[in-house]
């Protein structure tokens, strides 16, 4: 194994760690914000579900792995380990910085931004498959927040009728189940994207492979869970306490909408942003009660972080590629 390969696989595990640190909040924010659980208990339980989704992604989400290895650049392009490492640098750098600031951002957007801008710099405009990027990446990422906003509102209307007016279902256990389902969906959705990047480095040692090996998914699952446990508190506090207040039923509805959308899209190979889906579902619960129930300053900060994710991650990636191609590796 070359030094570049070892560094690349470590960087992919680092991205899984950063993804867990920023994204664990999307599964547990409603539990913590509604008072159903404290952070430590919620993050441990949900991290197990995330790890399970990450492991099963090796079999269930192969389409997305292929999209993030071959789907955005021309077949004539031969990405080098330096290119893949630059993409990882762009995504890891931005996601970790955002986590430190307590801002929920999209790892998917960071990967796409780093891939596109680094690809433009390294290979040129004509080598990007813009049609594929639009239909398979950009459109799902743009539509998913709107769909999640609406889905959470509809889910709440149904659950409110079911739980409070007709069957009086105790929704506390269901809230926990929905959080676990959301975590499972996140592992299923996000791990193939990271595995696709790590595949570049593993393929250097075994060119016969066409997708990342399953053992690598286990490594990414462990790194993802560790990231949530070690660094997930700040972003969780933002979504749990600073956006809007939620009760158990509202949290259940938001998590139900999130898990349903993310699992469905991951199974069909569409890389939606778990961040956008989950945050939009929580915003939907706030807007349901009126705009006054939302913290406008925090919501605007989250929106700004979303907008700058793609270009900032891309600039970091392009800068990393420029640096790596001038290093004697």
Task: Give me a quick take on this structure.
With 329 residues, the protein is an all-alpha fold. 80% of the residues lie in helices and 0% in strands.
Keywords:
mainly alpha, 80% helix, 0% strand
Q: Please give the alpha-carbon distance between the first and last residues.
A: 13 Å
Dominant shape: globular
**Fraction of helical residues:** over 70%
Note the total helix count: 12
Number of strands: 0
Domain count: 1
Q: What value does the Rg take, in angstroms? A: 19 Å
Q: The biggest beta sheet, please?
A: none
Average pLDDT over all residues: 79
3D architecture notes:
This protein is an all-alpha fold and about 325 residues long. It has one domain. About 80% of the residues lie in helices and about 0% in strands. The chain has twelve helices and no strands. The chain has helices at about 5-35, 40-60, 60-70, 80-100, 105-125, 130-165, 170-205, 215-230, 235-240, 250-265, 275-290, 295-325. Helix 3 (about 60-70) crosses helix 7. The longest helix has about 35 residues, at about 130-165. The radius of gyration is 19 Å and the shape is globular. The protein starts with a helix and ends in a 5-residue tail after the last helix. The mean pLDDT is about 80.
Summarize the helices and strands and which ones pair or pack:
Blueprint: H1 3-33, H2 39-60, H3 62-70, H4 81-101, H5 107-123, H6 130-166, H7 172-205, H8 214-231, H9 233-242, H10 248-267, H11 274-288, H12 296-324
Helix pairs in contact: 1-2, 1-4, 1-7, 1-8, 1-9, 1-10, 1-11, 2-7, 2-8, 3-7, 4-5, 4-7, 4-12, 5-12, 6-10, 6-11, 7-8, 7-10, 10-11
């Amino acid at each position: 194994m070359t030094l570049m390969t070892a560094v690349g696989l470590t960087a992919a595990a680092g991205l899984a760690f950063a993804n867990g640190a920023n994204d664990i909040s999307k599964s547990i924010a409603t539990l913590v914000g509604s008072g159903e659980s404290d952070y430590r208990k919620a993050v441990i339980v949900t991290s197990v579900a995330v790890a399970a989704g990450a492991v099963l992604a090796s079999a269930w989400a192969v389409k997305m792995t292929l999209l993030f290895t071959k789907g955005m650049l021309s077949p004539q392009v031969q990405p080098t380990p330096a290119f893949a490492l630059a993409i990882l640098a762009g995504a890891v750098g931005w996601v970790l910085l955002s986590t430190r600031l307590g801002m929920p951002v999209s790892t998917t957007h960071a990967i796409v931004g780093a891939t596109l801008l680094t690809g433009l710099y390294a290979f040129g405009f004509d080598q990007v498959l813009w049609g594929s990027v639009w239909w398979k990446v950009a459109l799902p990422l743009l539509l998913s927040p709107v769909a999640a906003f609406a889905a959470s509102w509809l889910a709440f209307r149904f659950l409110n009728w079911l739980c409070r007016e007709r069957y009086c279902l105790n929704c506390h256990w269901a809230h926990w189940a929905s959080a676990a389902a959301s975590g499972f969906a996140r592992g299923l959705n996000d791990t193939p994207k990271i595995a696709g990047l790590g595949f570049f480095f593993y393929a250097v040692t075994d060119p016969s492979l066409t997708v990342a090996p399953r053992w690598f998914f286990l490594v990414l699952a462990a790194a993802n869970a560790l990231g949530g446990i070690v660094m997930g508190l700040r972003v969780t506090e933002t979504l749990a306490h600073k956006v809007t207040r939620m009760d158990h039923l509202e949290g259940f509805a938001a998590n139900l909408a999130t898990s349903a959308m993310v699992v469905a899209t991951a199974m069909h190979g569409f890389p939606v942003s778990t961040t956008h889906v989950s945050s939009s579902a929580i915003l939907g619960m706030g807007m349901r009660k009126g705009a006054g129930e939302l913290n406008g300053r925090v919501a605007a900060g989250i929106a700004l972080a979303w907008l700058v994710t793609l270009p900032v991650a891309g600039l970091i990636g392009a800068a990393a590629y420029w640096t790596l191609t001038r290093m004697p590796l």
